[in-house]
Design goal:
Strand content of chain B: under 5%
Radius of gyration of chain A: 19 Å
Largest interface: A-B, 44 and 33 residues
Number of helices of chain B: 16
Oligomer: heterodimer
Shape of chain B: globular
Structural class of chain A: alpha/beta
Number of strands of chain B: 4
Largest sheet of chain B: 2 strands, antiparallel
Radius of gyration of chain B: 21 Å
Strand content of chain A: 15-25%
Distance between the termini of chain B: 50 Å
Largest sheet of chain A: 6 strands, mixed
Distance between the termini of chain A: 31 Å
Strand order of the largest sheet of chain B: 1-4
Helix content of chain A: 25-40%
Chain lengths: 272, 330
């Protein structure tokens, strides 16, 4: 999506080349409608952020899209392929991979092993393949790929350390690097900057931009408005489970519906 | 007091067929618990199914080789049947379900209406003739030196038992050092993370349960053939927990740890038993405090203390590196 795309700044607007399309998706927990998205398209090869106040349903939406939760109703498709009702590991295999709000590294595996767990082409990862053998060739190629990615993320020196010994920021980097081993088309980052020190945030954001530069679509949930403003091409605002606004970051900050969602109705009137 | 006798009792028990059987079963449990992180509190059920599968087949006129196949296949199927409905549960619920399943199975086997098939509380006897007929050593001949001697009959079971332990260990090593094993360890560390990377966590856990079950089934068969007799109450939940002690003692998630854990446990258990029996008989004031039966129970206390000390000073187990132990903390 160019700097100023010629599409309307309204919820559910159609995009020229959507990689991800959500239709009529609902998920309720008891009486609470956590997610209720009529229609949402994510443009290919952009950085799209999903923002919203706490409890707006951002993480639930993430879980629904990655197979970690199932919607009560509705559907979504990745590259035109319907993915509803498909378990999480198959969503990842089809090219949509996620990270977690609370970083999930595999502590008693080395950094390199963390990467290799995600390697896509590995016949030795099945029981039969492991018994029969002959997976070492694929392993060498995967290791090469893993070391390349670790290099990009500045984790080369840590490759043989247990992941449990990494700092919080390094864990965030490893999680992102590891996701790339799946060779995804869409990368979903759940609060990538949460708990990361300001210096590292900058380098983390460079990596996020790098994902876009290498052709991927990035969808991320974020609380830090400075971060959202600085790297998003497009912002989707969620409130009480629904998409209440979308548009480029500049326009979003001035949108009264957004100010209302964040600050409450009366405050919004005060601001005006 | 004859220290050599005490040492011999410990050493003979350590290399004996019972320890080999425990080591084999512990290898299976180590795959499930040490690598896949499955809290299988019903591990003993796989041993029961393996032992009864073989014994019943032979009892009903089948050949021994068919009995072995039936025993192992039954143990694999038990893993499948237990895993399909329960592996999606959270770890603690799986633990509860597995111990319940193992107890239900034991109670069914010992029930009076199962008696025509399983022999009920009386169990089954005399199905191991073909196995002992294969023994190349004269059964009553003694092998060894000094006080370290075993009969030809025992030697045969010892050799078969430890050969199985070696084969099982090499098999597990091959699996664990493969990408498959790496995924298994990843599941132990974090299921959701592994799932998010495109791995079918459920299928891997099911496979671990079935393979570990097959190895435990083999251990059950070994026990049955060695003793020529099985009865359901030999398969109490206690056995599972002793196996957990062995695995944790040796180092959960280390390839030789389960074997070493079983050996160390066996040695501690039988050496303290021999020691207490001698002390009771030879040292007056100990003889005055404990009856022979009471002295026999002291071994549980001594073994418990020894295990506590080991855990206090080497919490990661005997064979796991300190470094790896440290990585858990953060």
């Amino acid at each position: 999506m160019g700097p100023e795309l010629e599409i309307a700044h309204q919820p559910g607007v159609a995009k020229p080349d959507p990689v991800l399309t959500i239709d009529g998706m609902q998920r309720a927990f008891g009486g609470l409608m956590a997610v209720n998205v009529d229609h949402l398209e994510i443009q290919r090869n952009t950085i799209t952020s999903i923002i919203g106040p706490n409890g707006a349903g951002k993480t639930t939406l993430f879980n629904l899209l990655t197979g970690f939760d199932s919607p009560d109703q509705g559907q979504f498709s990745l590259d035109g392929e319907l993915l509803v009702g498909i378990p999480a590991h198959q969503v990842a295999q089809r090219g949509m991979v996620r990270t977690f709000q609370l970083t999930k590294v595999l502590p008693r595996l080395t950094v390199l092993e963390n990467m290799l767990v995600a390697a896509k082409a590995q016949p030795g990862a099945t029981f039969r393949g492991a018994v029969v053998g002959g997976w070492q060739g694929a392993e060498r190629q995967n290791e090469e790929q893993a070391r390349d990615i670790l290099q990009q993320f500045g984790l080369t020196a840590m490759a043989d350390e247990y992941a449990g010994r990494l700092s919080g920021g390094q864990r965030k980097l490893l999680e992102m690097a590891r996701a790339l081993m799946v060779r995804p088309t869409v990368v979903m980052l759940d609060e990538p900057t949460a708990g990361v020190n300001p210096v590292l945030i900058q380098s983390l954001l460079e990596h996020v931009k790098g994902l876009k530069a290498s052709g991927m679509t990035v969808l991320f949930v974020e609380h830090d408005m400075d971060v959202v403003q600085s790297i998003s091409d497009w912002v989707v605002v969620v409130g009480e489970g629904e998409v209440i606004a979308e548009g480029p970051p500049g326009a979003i900050a001035r949108n009264p519906a957004v100010i209302e969602a964040y600050l409450g109705k009366h405050r919004a009137e005060d601001v005006e | 007091m004859d220290w050599m006798q005490i040492l011999a009792a410990g050493v003979l028990a350590t290399i004996g067929p019972v320890t080999a059987g425990y080591a084999l079963s512990a290898i299976g449990l180590n795959l499930q618990f040490g690598y896949a992180g499955l809290l299988n509190f019903g591990h003993v059920a796989s041993m029961l199914v393996g032992a009864y599968g073989t014994a019943m087949t032979v009892e009903f006129g089948g050949p021994l080789w068919l009995g072995l196949i039936v025993g192992i296949v039954a143990a694999v199927l038990l893993g499948l049947l237990l895993g399909l409905p329960t592996l999606r549960l959270r770890a603690d619920y799986f633990a509860i379900t597995s111990i319940a399943a193992a107890e239900v199975l034991r109670l069914v086997v010992r029930s009076s209406w199962a008696q025509p098939l399983t022999g009920g509380v009386f169990g089954l006897q005399g199905f191991g003739g073909d196995f002992h007929a294969l023994n190349p050593f004269p059964t009553s001949e003694l092998y060894g030196f000094g006080q370290f001697v075993v009969t030809g009959r025992a030697l045969w079971v010892i050799l078969v038992g430890w050969a199985l332990v070696l084969l099982a260990t090499l098999f597990i090593a091959r699996l664990i050092n493969s990408p498959w094993g790496r995924v298994l360890k990843a599941i132990r560390e974090d299921e959701d993370a592994t799932r998010s990377l495109g791995r079918n966590v459920f299928a891997y856990k099911l496979q671990a349960l079935m393979i570990g079950g097959a190895i435990a089934g083999l251990a059950g068969i070994l026990f049955a053939l060695e003793q020529q007799s099985i009865h359901p109450d030999a398969f109490q939940p206690r056995i599972t927990f002793l196996l957990f002690v062995m695995v944790i003692l040796g180092g959960a998630g280390s390839i030789w740890g389960a074997v070493l854990g079983a050996a160390v446990f066996g040695f501690l258990f039988y050496a303290t038993d021999a020691l207490m029996a001698r002390l009771q008989a030879n040292v007056d004031f100990i003889g005055a405090i404990f009856s022979p039966a009471e002295a026999g129970l002291i071994k549980y206390i001594l073994v418990g203390v020894a295990l506590m000390l080991l855990m206090a000073f080497r919490p990661q187990g005997l064979l796991r590196s300190r470094d790896q132990g440290r990585a858990d903390g953060s």
